[in-house]
Amino acid sequence: xxxxxxxxxxxxxxxxxxxxxxxxxxxxxxxxxxxxxxxxxxxxxxxxxxxxxxxxxxxxxxxxxxxxxxxxxxxxxxxxxxxxxxxxxxxxxxxxxxxxxxxxxxxxxxxxxxxxxxxxxxxxxxxxxxxxxxxxxxxxxxxxxxxxxxx
Length: 151
What we know:
Elements: H1 2-6, H2 9-27, H3 43-65, H4 76-96, H5 98-109, H6 118-139
Helix pairs in contact: 2-3, 4-5, 5-6
């Protein structure tokens, strides 16, 4: 029974959700929560943190109760590429801008899927970049460069 739980995808997914919720609570600990009528800057991070913890607990318990799909093997290469791509995006956003940072993120994360279809990846990248520029820069007017030194 214990071995089955430790190989359950639901159990590990639940732990991941709870860990992310706990991280939101810890990182947002210094923000004022406020009340429902007067929400502070920490209200949403705290609410999302508690929701993630509760959802994670439900999913983890499901891993105990049900015959869930099992983790066969952890694939480190895709996980590493995805994490690396997010770190690279975060490091590049301010110095070079949104478009180059997103292009780098997509180029690094694309091989995580296995077979890379170049034109398909370029098309998806173009769509995502245009969408993000429209949403974050045009509609939300966020203050980061689209392309450093240009816009």
